[in-house]
Design brief:
Elements: E1 2-4, E2 7-9, E3 17-22, H1 26-36, E4 41-46, H2 49-58, E5 61-67, H3 75-83, E6 93-97, H4 103-111, E7 116-119, H5 124-186, H6 193-220, E8 229-232, H7 233-247, E9 253-259, E10 262-265, H8 267-284, E11 290-296, E12 301-308, H9 337-347, E13 351-357, E14 360-368
Parallel strand pairs: 3-4, 3-5, 5-6, 6-7, 9-11
Antiparallel strand pairs: 1-2, 8-10, 11-12, 12-14, 13-14
Length: 381
């Protein structure tokens, strides 16, 4: 019995494996049925290609045993029809024939998709061993499919729970953040100032984590859309940098701008891009000045860069934008910030990259000046 979470999963009995035997001679069908009959196996008998096609449309066939020489539709023709249908193209086929061993006929059989070509009279032990192998393979495929479906349902449930939980957490967290801001103001110059500042910083970090989880859930569920509107990247960057400076007055964040920074983009998502990059620099970068630069000199593109002291481990660079793997220290956060940056940039039709240099770590974001509103989907998952 399997368990997901604390709930056991009841294992249902394995469904019967269906073996299709096609032969125009009734005695051959009866003899083959008697030979192959066993528990967990259902024998389907067809005396023509047309009757076989009806079985193939109705049942999930583990193996088809086809007689080559039949009137109206021979085994080769039936095999070609099976290979032409998405439902039956993967059904294993073994050809049975009473004709003398002819390499050309065998080649034609394999060409139409057969896995084996047996000549009558057939040795019972040979056919039984071959059929047993294909029954086991079919049962393994069925088990794997069911297991994948259960895992998919479990993942969907987990993502739904994350979305609901993070959404419901935002209300009490907003209250904590407002109270923390008031405590910081009222405790200024007192012994509680440091404690109040710590509460405010922790509330800010928790708020970012909740927002990242919610964005992650929305991206994975493909329910997040871009709302591209006219805006000014310089003004937007000034607002975000100003907010971060107020929260982290102990850090120096420089902002510079050049060129025409007007364009069409989703202001909320671009704000999150810059906010996450700054949060990443503050949390994982070394002490020193953080430099933000926005550039609109290119007629078709907008450039945004964030540079901070420090270095990214070489082994981490290729995986930096993967979910839950972008954190320098997993105990410090979820590792979703850079993943969300990458997803939002891609949704705009842009690109983001990170590199180490002698002066520190640099993140470069390139966005088209005029982005189209589109649905966000999870890339590379």
């Amino acid at each position: 019995m399997s368990v997901i979470g604390d709930r056991p999963i009841v294992e249902l009995p394995m469904p019967s494996a269906h073996i299709l035997i096609v032969d125009d001679v009734p005695q051959n069908l009866t003899a083959m049925e008697a030979l192959l009959e066993q528990d967990g196996v259902e024998i389907l008998k067809a005396q023509s290609g047309a009757e076989a096609l009806e079985f193939l449309l109705k049942f999930d066939i583990a193996l088809a045993l086809l007689d080559v020489q039949m009137p109206e539709m021979d085994g080769f023709t039936l095999a070609e029809l099976m290979r032409g249908s998405s439902r039956t193209r993967d059904v294993p086929i073994i050809f049975l024939t009473a004709s003398p061993d002819d390499p050309m006929r065998s080649f034609k059989g394999y060409e139409t998709g057969a896995v084996d070509f047996l000549h009558k009279p057939i040795e019972p032990r040979v056919i039984l061993s071959k059929v047993s192998v294909f029954i086991q393979l079919h049962q393994q495929r069925v088990e794997l499919k069911e297991r994948n479906e259960r895992l998919e349902r479990s993942l969907q449930l987990n993502e739904t729970m994350i979305a609901v939980l993070t959404h419901d957490l935002r209300t009490p967290l907003s209250a904590i953040t407002l109270c923390a801001e008031r405590l910081v103001d009222e405790a200024e110059g007192t012994a509680l100032a440091r404690t109040a500042s710590f509460v405010g910083t922790s509330a800010f970090r928790m708020s970012r984590m909740v927002a990242q989880l919610l964005d992650f859930s929305r991206i994975r569920s493909s329910i997040l859309t871009l709302d591209a509107r006219e805006g000014d990247l310089g003004e937007l960057s000034g607002e975000i940098v100003g907010e971060v400076r107020r929260i982290h007055p102990e850090r120096t964040i420089a902002l510079s701008a050049s060129g025409n920074l007007k364009g069409s983009f989703d202001g909320v998502r671009v704000s999150q891009i810059l906010s996450n990059l700054l949060g990443n620099a503050l949390q994982y970068g070394a002490a020193g000045e953080i430099v933000v630069h926005v550039d609109g000199s290119d007629a078709d593109l907008l450039h945004l860069s964030v540079k901070n002291p420090g270095r990214i481990e070489d082994a981490l660079l290729p995986r930096l934008f993967e979910p839950f793997k972008g954190a320098f220290n997993p105990s410090d956060g979820l590792g979703l910030g850079l993943y969300i940056v990458d997803q939002f940039v891609r949704a705009h039709g842009g690109m983001v990259r990170a590199e180490n240099s002698e002066s520190g770590v640099r993140f470069d974001v390139v966005l088209p000046r005029f982005a189209d509103g589109s649905k966000l989907t999870a890339f590379g998952l």
